[in-house]
């Protein structure tokens, strides 16, 4: 059984999610937090948090030295660097680290239909979890978080809502529900999981801030803006067909369209709470208001 975790090192702390995870641990005096960053990284971090620099090729000797004495590694590195986690996992085992949280955050990568559509997003993450499973016997436990889309980014990025133009792109009738989580709640979930590592060891945890549909989101936005939005309805299958054709030609503008499809169409893992148990209660996550979260986004625009 994993014992208490106090010293935590965050990898990828300068990305979309990393700062929120750093903030959650930094605000809890039960943890000592530090950051691992590549020498070439231009990211800046809170001045009071120790930063360990490592060569860009993730040299194992350097990594073992940095990770020795750490209890847990939280990894939020970008999609294109997912494979580099193997070097971190090997170093974690050699350094005696107890727990590893891979950069899984997002859609449910175990969904085969979604994995077939976007293998470049799913296969690498699956391989990392399989690699972690192979290290359980070496004393390294792991926890992978399924969060759905990062709510604040996804709403206007690929879920179909243009705040500035007050325009919504709705897939089919927009009534299918999906899960999404705010980044601050993801940070809190990861931090709280490390308070009881034995209860989260070697498993996927499913969390959400909201379980809503595109219609729910549109209604909330119209209410907040006191305006009727323009709405375009798209046939999901036709949209998918065109996007896959684009992607086959190397046009990556198709990816957000396919992400919307995976999120909003039944059977692709967007509504994972249909089949999996929520870890919200286990991790003492707050009940959040869709209106408040959207109001924050509307203010930014």
From TrEMBL:
GO terms for molecular function: oxidoreductase activity. Keywords: NADP, Oxidoreductase. SUPFAM superfamilies: NAD(P)-binding Rossmann-fold domains. Gene3D superfamilies: NAD(P)-binding Rossmann-like Domain (3.40.50.720), UDP-galactose 4-epimerase, domain 1 (3.90.25.10). The keyword Transcription regulation does not apply. Residues 6-183 form the NmrA-like domain. It comes from Aspergillus lentulus. Pfam families: NmrA (PF05368). InterPro entries: NAD(P)-bd_dom_sf, NmrA-like, NmrA/Isoflavone_reductase-like, PCBER-like. This is Isoflavone reductase homolog IRL. The keyword Oxidoreductase applies. PANTHER family: NMRA-LIKE DOMAIN-CONTAINING PROTEIN-RELATED, NMRA-LIKE FAMILY PROTEIN.
């Amino acid at each position: 059984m994993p014992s208490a975790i106090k010293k935590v090192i965050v990898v990828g702390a300068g990305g979309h999610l990393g700062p929120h995870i750093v903030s959650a641990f930094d605000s809890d005096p039960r943890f000592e937090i530090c950051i691992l960053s590549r020498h070439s990284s231009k990211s800046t971090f809170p001045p009071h948090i120790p930063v360990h620099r490592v060569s860009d090729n993730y040299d194992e000797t350097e990594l073992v030295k940095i990770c020795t004495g750490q209890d847990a590694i939280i990894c939020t590195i970008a999609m294109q660097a997912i494979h580099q986690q193997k070097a971190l996992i090997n170093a974690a085992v050699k350094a005696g680290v107890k727990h590893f949280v891979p950069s899984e955050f997002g859609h449910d990568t175990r969904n085969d239909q979604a994995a077939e559509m976007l293998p470049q997003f799913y296969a690498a993450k699956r391989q990392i979890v399989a690699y972690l499973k192979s290290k359980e016997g070496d004393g390294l436990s792991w926890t992978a978080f399924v969060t759905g889309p990062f709510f604040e980014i996804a709403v206007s990025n690929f879920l179909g809502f243009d705040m500035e133009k007050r325009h919504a792109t709705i897939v089919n009738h927009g009534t299918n529900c999906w899960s999404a989580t705010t980044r601050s709640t993801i940070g809190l979930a990861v931090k709280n999981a490390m308070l009881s590592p034995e209860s989260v060891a070697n498993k996927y945890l499913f969390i959400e801030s909201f379980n809503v549909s595109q219609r729910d989101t549109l209604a909330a936005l119209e209410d907040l803006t006191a305006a009727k939005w323009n709405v375009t309805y798209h046939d999901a299958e036709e949209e998918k067909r065109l996007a896959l054709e684009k992607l086959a030609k190397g046009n990556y503008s198709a990816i957000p369209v396919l992400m919307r499809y995976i999120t909003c169409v039944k059977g692709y893992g967007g509504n994972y709470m249909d089949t999996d148990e929520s870890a919200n209660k286990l991790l003492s996550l707050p009940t959040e208001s869709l209106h408040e979260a959207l109001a924050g986004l509307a203010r930014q625009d």
